[in-house]
Amino acid sequence: MNLYEHTIIARQDVSPSQLKQIEDKYTKIVEKFEGNIVKLENWGLMNLSYLIKKNKKGNYIHFKIKADGKIISELEKNEKLDKNLLRYLTVKVKKFDLQTDYFKRNEDKEISNK
Prior knowledge:
This protein has helices spanning about 15-30, 70-80, 105-114; strands spanning about 1-10, 35-50, 55-65, 85-95. The protein has about 110 residues and is an alpha+beta fold. Strands 2-3-1-4 form a four-stranded antiparallel sheet, with helices on one face. Strand 2 and strand 3 (about 55-65) form a beta hairpin. The relative contact order is 0.28.
């Protein structure tokens, strides 16, 4: 089994219930092909560096997946057809960093440090 970090950017006008459906859809695809989602992070709505399909912002969803390469090709095949997604990216990694929360707000970090 290989380790992958997979990030999806959904359109800015997608509702929270639609975001949940997107998370569930791709989680089911991974599980259907006997992969394992180690961690799922919803990074929220963030600014894009440049306009993508007339969108200035996007909803980021990040998966840490333990799976074979076939699962990733199946995920990407489905994501190409999904009209709610702007972009996706898969990176193969040697090990996961499960402790660091990169997109946690500063106020939350200060509260947890006290």
